[in-house]
Amino acid sequence: MLNIIQLLPDSIANQIAAGEVVQRPASVVKELLENSIDARAKTVQIIIREAGKSLIQIIDDGAGMSETDARMSFERHATSKIRSSDDLFRIRTMGFRGEALASIAAVAQVELRTRRSDAASGTDELGTLIRIEGSELKTQESVSCLPGTNILVKNLFFNVPARRNFLKSNSVEMRHILDEFQRVALAHPDVAFSLYHNDSEVYNLQAGKLSRRIVDLFGKQYREQLAFCEEETPYVNVRGYIGKPEFARKTRGEQFFFVNTRFVKHNYLHHAVVGAYEGTIQDGFHPFYVLFIEIDPSHIDINIHPTKTEIKFDDERSVYAIVMAAVRKAVGVYNLTPSLDFDSNVNFLPVTPAPRRTSEEQTTERVPENRSRSSVRSMNPGWSTETVEPKAPIPFDFPRKSAANWQALFEGLDTPEKPPVTLFDREEATDSPETESVTLESRVNKLKTSAVAWEGNGPVIQVQNRFLLTTVQAGVLVIDQRRAYERILYDQYQTALTKRNGVSQQLLFPKTVTVMPVDYNLALELREDLTSLGFLFDEIGQNAFLIRGVPALSVGENEEELFANLLAQLREDTGRLKLERAEVLARSLARRSASRQQKQLTEPEQRALVEQVLASSNASYTPSGEPIMTVLTLDKLAGLFRS
Length: 643
Fold this sequence. Notes:
The protein is an alpha+beta fold. The protein has 18 helices and 24 strands. It folds into four domains: 10-205, Heat Shock Protein 90 (2-Layer Sandwich), CATH 3.30.565.10; 210-363, 2-Layer Sandwich (Ribosomal Protein S5, domain 2); 400-415 and 436-485 and 599-639, 2-Layer Sandwich (formyl-coa transferase, domain 3), CATH 3.30.1540; 486-595, Ribosomal Protein S8, Chain: A, domain 1. It has an eight-stranded mixed sheet. It has a five-stranded mixed sheet with strand order 11-12-15-13-14. It is elongated. The longest helix is centred in the C-terminal third of the chain and has 19 residues, at 481-499. Helix 6 runs antiparallel to helix 13 (517-525) and helix 15 (559-576) crosses helix 16 (581-594).
């Protein structure tokens, strides 16, 4: 019997390792940027073409490599960071496992030019050129080049077409590259970075303070919202900036934790930050923060995830308590802190500390529950696309035929003596017998009980601007007001995207809005869909748009915030939801607009909302699967009074 177990060839082993290290172009950018930082570079230039699919080039002025080191850097598990197993518990550099270059070279065409310029290792007169394709060495020779390292990665996944086919669109892949770039740039404000995509400058960041780096990355509006945060203990130090409570947003994505300058994701610590804001921001809003945690490497394990973005602390409760204390103190004193001094020569400005609690009090603080905040932002009146009296604001333009033929939803049930009250009270609206019958699909038959037969003449009661209650055959129907609006809006936006007939409300005074580079590219890619919804905008400069019109259903909102926050929400949802872009766009805009509808409704508006949600494409659930309504049956109600 022949032996069946064999050692894999190096080329195949490298491709397998590449599947873990190189998932997309952003993975290459991350690994190469970390190498430049570890080489003590002070200036790093990134050049991208076609979102990294055809070219990723990183040029730095770091230490460079000798001819032997340059060749060895492409071998698996070749590293300058580890000499013994003990070193694994003292890691303070970025890359250290020695797999990055070997993995990249296994799935791309790589060209490396490097020359040493280091007082400790000496300065070479000539550099080294190495070309590798699919782990196969093509060229190694001496060349004249600048000190530092210049590496080009061309045609990523050229020899693994199945992997290349799984890459997303250029805008999605570029968004991931920008995410990695922002993380490295925030972690190292003392390093100058520049980023170019298809010959266009995206970022040109000068070395300086962290506060300046935050403003340069995210926009000038952040200058006024940053509050310094600092807490020092024998176990861990916390430093950085948080956003003032009034600047909290509904979208996530601008929350950054760095442990020993390495970006990490940590839901437990995020909970600590949000808990520190309790009572100062509304429920569902997210604060901005860039926090650096310095801790002895022996107290953490950074090698529990292939991308090293997840870590474990040996005493998470203490870190939780210290982070919460630091943020809570900053939230409490930010208004007493003078404006940020962008001319100072330090990255972290000291602030007058508030009275400290003892170390024992900090480390034994009980983890609080994430209590909800009840404060709700005031809402603007509703409106209609048709002419209505100002004293009767209308939130939606409901089809007259659907409302007038509500009885068609419940064939076989008793027909009400008179048609249900509609949301509209207009002269042109008529209950003429000539109105043709309309058959509506997918109504309340999707509810858990078929006994939800609302006849339209029962009372409707609004509770705390959140719920609508009305009687049905089985008992009491309870409708979540915000979720009902979300379903109705989603259906209308879906129709607008499908028929390309969204109504736009043009602005008397166009508004200028500046967005992040990733959102700028996203808006350009989605221009057709955004226009179908009613957005009208023009490019007026780098990362800036002139908003000339907004969807008619969004009138009354701050146009700049609507446009910018929608793009941010869309960016977040696109990465989280595996859906078509138009579907995500309809969901994102419906969710944002629905959040403004927790307000007092007039009696006609209450009844019309019940009618419209029951006549929607799916009255039971929101697009994201949240239940919209429930029935408190007579048995349930009777059970509440049983002793």
